[in-house]
Specification:
Strand 1, helix 2 and strand 2 form a beta-alpha-beta unit. Helix 2 runs parallel beside helix 4. The protein is built from four helices and two strands; from the N terminus they run H-E-H-E-H-H. Helix content is about 45%, strand content about 10%. It has a two-stranded parallel ribbon.
């Protein structure tokens, strides 16, 4: 993600194989969004899963002001 962030000026989205642990690193390295499906839809507690993903961006002071979580 960090290498792409250096060469891409457009919003950078990460998709595929991203869990909560990897997501934090992606945001730190400049991801503007993370696309997840099964990490949320297969969660035993849907509201808790959504909340956990929202916190990924809120916890990163260096994340872009455009970084959002959409459900």
């Amino acid at each position: 993600v960090g290498q792409w962030r250096q060469v891409v000026e457009q919003p950078l989205a990460v998709i595929g194989g991203v869990d909560l642990e990897r997501a934090q690193g992606c945001v730190r390295q400049g991801a503007d969004s993370i696309c997840v499906v099964s990490a949320v839809t297969k969660a035993p507690d849907l509201p808790a899963a959504v909340g956990a993903w929202q916190r990924v961006f809120k916890q990163q002071p260096s994340s872009s002001s455009q970084a959002t979580v959409q459900v």
